[in-house]
Give the backbone structure.
Amino acid sequence: MVKFYWQEIMKIFKNIKLVIVFCFLPFGVISQVLPLDSILNRIEKNNPMLKMFDEQISAISNYSEGAKSWMPTTFTTGPWQTPYNDFRRGMWMFSSQQMIPNPTKQKANYNLMQGMSSVEKQGKGSSKNGMYTMAKQNYYEWIVLKKKYEVLVQTDSILQYVLKVARVRFTYNKEKLSNIYKAQADLFELRNMQTMFLADIKMKNTEINTLMNCNQSYVFEIDTTLQPKNYEVQLNDTALITSSRSDIKQYDARIDLVRLQQKVEQSKRLPDFGFSITHMQTYSVMPMPKLYSAMAMMVIPIAPFASKEYKANIKGLNNEANALSFQKKSLVNETTGIVTSLQTQIQSAKNQLVNYKQNIIPAYINSYRAALLSYEQNTEDLFLVLDGIKMYSMAKMNELDRLNTLLKLQVNYEREMEIR
């Protein structure tokens, strides 16, 4: 008899499975299935914040070209050595002046601008890693919600079947009306949970659309295939962490930028050169010779009163580079501890999942079947059958909660190691 009931329940469940596919789709239209990798590609291509980084990098590259420019030529003209009481006894002067930039200073400024570009590139990598983490988190939570929804649909079908049997038994005075109402309440409560999960799934769809910069009305399906990842057995040393994380490599880029700033300050010790040419001629009727002047100029910054600023800046920048180096070491040390802790938690979560699959879930199934068998033999109350169904459903939900925990730990590990 139990076998017959169980076969009937599974037939109902198989029919309902066909409905599940359409529960997530508007108007029954099959949506596009987007694997996680495709979503990450769309984020990298379309997210406005990542495009902002690209524009900033391009802007710095364009600005750096200006580091090799010269100061504009200065041109002056006007009366020269002209008496106040006799304008005709003066001369008119034309003068031109040009400063010649030191090529070493130009190169130092150019390299400094290029170093700023490297910092922005690593900043983009760090932001992209954060967006990937959010996308993966929402994607995996979506998978777990779908699996939970399927459990609710399965439990819904079982409860409907049990209610059908209970109503038949009630007509023969073999069932209590209060138990039937209890079963109906459980069924309606179950459908409330189904509605809640569908709303949560829609929210995950919206959050991923935001990251991809898609229209919020865009509906797609996800690939529920889960590939196990054995992060708990990987050996992670500081060299691997340093080479993986963009925010850690950004510290290297910032330290390099400080060293380039030091070179700019050091280049201020070098002299700058210039020249000026002046031509004077009279505008009176009196015969006076035309005059000219050609002068060379040199800026001497090595004088003690002029060198204090750049010497102080060089020392201060050296301290700043050391501070950044210690910050980097602190971040590497912190990340190493987090990664080791995550590996331990991942192993624990996997062990709990194995226990659920091999021991806990089968035990609840056997408990539910035994209660159903006793119910069919009129030796058990419907209340205990309903309790067995609820306990089985709760156990499946707890198992999926453990799966969600495991997936979160894996996502956090990928964030710390910057794994795409």
Summary: Strands lie at 32-34, 74-80, 91-100, 220-222, 272-282, 291-299. The radius of gyration is 39 Å. The longest strand covers residues 272-282. The CA atoms of residues 98 and 398 lie 79 Å apart.
